[in-house]
Design goal:
The protein is mainly alpha-helical. Helix content is 55%, strand content 0%. The longest helix is centred in the middle third of the chain and has 25 residues.
Amino acid sequence: MTLTDELLTELGDSGLEQIAGMLGTDTTMARDVVEAVSGVIIGGMARNARHPDGADALRAALDDHVDTDPFTGDVASLTRDGHSILGHVLGGQGTEQAADGLARFAGVDPAIIMRLLPLVAPMIMSLLANRATRRGMNASAMADDLDREQPARPGELGELLQDLLDALFGGGVPAQGGPYESRSPFGTGTTGHRGAPDGHEEGDFENGTGRTGGFQEEDPREDPREDPHEDPREDPRQVAPGTSNPDW
């Protein structure tokens, strides 16, 4: 079973229905979009893990995500953590580029995909962490496992993901630099205002067992990925589009 298969199983029908509500479409398209979103995240992890230091950093970071349950966590925290993970995997501008490509695939506003990406990222991180621990994977084995996920994407979706990842990473191994730290991405960033765009009360997001919460809408006045008072030129960890931030 692939990581995406595991993700869809954990989401269940209830999760897909919520995502369909976000997208303004049916659950069949929602499933396709989830597969595409997870494919970009997993593909970004795989590209980073092709570099030995990148694999070591990701494997160390996974230890902080074993036995976490993002499928029942607070949506605001999930989104905040997801932005941090995406910053490491794709880079800030790379995440936006991925969202644009996925939005064209789904026929929706890129802003909606930008809300979905950080929800899915912690789920993938948790599933990969549990797999790596369960199978006793070291960094090299984890990198090989991520690479094996890529051919599982069929037809049009596989071509879309290949094109997106090549655009983000230039068709090769992403450039790496700076010291690697096994710091968890969880617990960093800022939190937007709480609220549910679909009218639900904020609550838990669970895999179809009857307890679901609305997806949180970010405050448009706040960007959870950036501090408006900081000069980005002063951030030594800021990275180019498609270039991972190795400082986990």
